[in-house]
């Protein structure tokens, strides 16, 4: 896989960068010498976060493809290039599938899946055009590898992000692109995903696995980008649940 050997003097864009994992990653990139632009929905909180951590900012709705295309063009106009995209904006709600309002499911998919799609389509061509080597991270979740009751909309969005990332990695490699891609698969992290969806409930199931601070996730992510990792896992404690799912799948191939 293609990695990014250094962050110094690189231009990075972080969606969902005003809080949580996105903010922590943006701050870590600044500390490594990168020029960073954070993208988030609310202009006031995005400006406040940018001032606090020393980044540029663009208040953009990631579900709007035209706005994302303009954002990519704006970043290149400001810096002359873009090298790294952290496609991180996301929301979650905890509701049983048959009781969930369909508009809730649409909103989760709009942000978690279509936001990633729009980010890729806006920024990957710009990275290929303007950078000598680049990298893209799509934030999924361990919820993209396993399921839990009440998280149907969230999990289907994250499973889709995993599949999209795997497919894109194969396509970029086949055409010998200088852009690498990885999928971030965090477990429980102290973020405001539920609040981002306008809900007060905690959407993350209580698995007994540790709750990481966003800064811990950033500390795992940056070396993975340098290595060019396709799968970036934050919680090794989850290995047993993933292995159990794979064993069940393997057992189904009994014919």
Structural account:
By secondary structure, the chain is α/β, with parallel strands linked by helices. The protein has a single domain (11-251), classed as NAD(P)-binding Rossmann-like Domain (Rossmann fold, 3-Layer(aba) Sandwich), CATH 3.40.50.720. 47% of the residues lie in helices and 14% in strands. The protein contains eight helices and seven strands. The protein has helices spanning 20-31, 43-53, 65-79, 102-130, 152-174, 193-196, 214-227, 239-251; strands at 11-15, 35-40, 56-59, 84-87, 134-139, 179-185, 231-233. It has a seven-stranded parallel beta sheet, with helices on both faces. Strand 2 (35-40), helix 2 (43-53) and strand 3 form a beta-alpha-beta unit. Helix 1 packs across helix 7 (214-227), helix 3 (65-79) runs parallel beside helix 4 and helix 4 (102-130) packs parallel to helix 5 (152-174). The longest helix has 29 residues, at 102-130. The radius of gyration is 17 Å and the shape is globular. The two termini are 35 Å apart. 46% of the residues are buried.
